[in-house]
Amino acid sequence: MDIVIFVVSMGALIYGADFIIEQSEKIALHFKISAFIIGATLIALGTSLPEMAVSMSASAKGSGDIAVANVIGSTIFNIALVLGTVFLISKNINPDRDLFAKDSAWSLFPILIFILMSIDGKLSMLDGFIFLTLMGAYLLFLIQSNQVEESSDVDKEKFAWSKTIFILAIGFIFVVGGANFAIESAGNIARSFGISEWIIGMFLVAFGTSLPELTVAIKAARANNADMAIGAIIGSNVANFTMVLGLSSIIAPLNVDLAANFFDITAALIVSVMLVFITANKLYNKSAGIVLMSVLLLVIANSF
């Protein structure tokens, strides 16, 4: 029964996030915000809502391992699986924005700060506020670097705030409700099979909460909108560490065992460095996609 509840709750998370993403994109396009900024802010934050809801719920229930593992696993899935898939299915990727000069460092800052904060074995309330401050700095940076587009795909006369707000509210209800049931059922599954909460968070929960990013990235790649796809991945990873772990550690301190989870945390750091390397050398091709997928397979093989 717990497996059924988990699947249904993850479905609610994904559909809720999809509602939020769709309406957020309409708002952004209505105000003529560039594709990369749409991906890195509204869509990234929307796709990070499942991680945020799950990790905050886990923190409140004393399941700190799931909260932290969810973020580490999501980072690996977002770069290795989501970005790898984008590279494999896209015919030609040529972002308009200089991703290395402007944005790649933001994929490294959060995880490096996370590692430094975790040396003492926990993320405190103060650490949480520092994370939120970093998120504020990232949003300010994006706002200042926004390049306004000349045209919008949304007809302003058909843009209705009442409908948008209603659908956003439904999306938030699905996300929050789904997260509550997902964390409870995932914990029960872990205990019944003798699987650690870290593994459940790293794979079951992290993969499920990364599905919105995967869906958005595939849609963007098929529409030849690489800026939006890559922006959503970078922004989502920043949000996962800063907002997700930040808010979760403010709710309750999170214990982090760097030694016990050395391989997974190192893997998250490696794929983040790989993202910087890819953007620096503009390796937006199928070979890069295969390498990223290979890293994901290594992580899965090591864990199981």
Describe it.
The chain is mainly alpha-helical. It has a single domain, classed as NCX, central ion-binding region (A middle domain of Talin 1), CATH 1.20.1420.30. It is built from eleven helices and two strands, in the order αααααβααααβαα. It has a two-stranded antiparallel ribbon with strand order 1-2. The radius of gyration is 18 Å and the shape is globular.
How is the topology of this model organized?
Blueprint: H1 2-30, H2 35-60, H3 64-89, H4 99-102, H5 109-117, E1 122-123, H6 125-145, H7 161-193, H8 197-222, H9 226-251, E2 254-255, H10 262-281, H11 286-303
Antiparallel strand pairs: 1-2
Features:
mainly alpha; A middle domain of Talin 1; two-stranded antiparallel ribbon; 11 helices; 78% helix; globular
Specify the helix fraction band: over 70%
Tell how many strands the DSSP assignment holds.
2
- Using only C-alpha atoms, the radius of gyration works out to 18 Å
The dominant shape is globular
The DSSP helix count reads: 11
Poorly predicted runs of 5 or more residues: 148-154
Q: Give the overall pLDDT as a whole number.
A: 84
Elements, N to C (H/E): HHHHHEHHHHEHH
Structural class: mainly alpha
Distance between the termini: 24 Å
Number of domains: 1
Cross-sheet strand order for the largest sheet: 1-2
> How would you sum up the major sheet?
2 strands, antiparallel
Q: Which architecture name does CATH use?
A: Up-down Bundle
- The CATH class assignment is Mainly Alpha
CATH topology: A middle domain of Talin 1
- Percentage of residues in DSSP E strands: under 5%
In CATH, what is the homologous superfamily? NCX, central ion-binding region
